[in-house]
Amino acid sequence: VRVQSPWCVDMQVVDLPGFRDFNHDHTRQHLASDIERMNESFMADPRNVMLCVEQAGDSATMATLSRCRKVDPYFRRTILIRNKLDKFYKDLTCDNVSKWVDGFGDLPSEL
Predict the structure, then answer these.
(1) Rg of the chain taking only CA atoms, in angstroms
(2) Which of 8-12, 76-80, 86-90 has the lowest mean pLDDT?
(3) pTM higher than 0.90, yes or no?
(4) Which end of the chain is less congested by CB atoms within 10 angstroms, N or C?
């Protein structure tokens, strides 16, 4: 997707494939290594802003956010998007939805 306007900076959105942490065979491991190399080279470019999509829940399992932190330790160009809050619909209330989004205090304050 490309966004252009005479009144703002041009922007491109690139949807990279997700990291694959578990693979059954050599072929899939090779693919996972290729994806990791491609993603990490894109993430290392300081001109790129990263939209880090992580499933809501225990922030200790946020593998992609950990990878973003390696190249952007202060999260200056990382935007965390928490999805699948609907899995916790029965637990959500008007009083605690912000706490779910914030990770119940487990997320880095810089985000």
Answers:
(1) 16
(2) 86-90
(3) no
(4) N
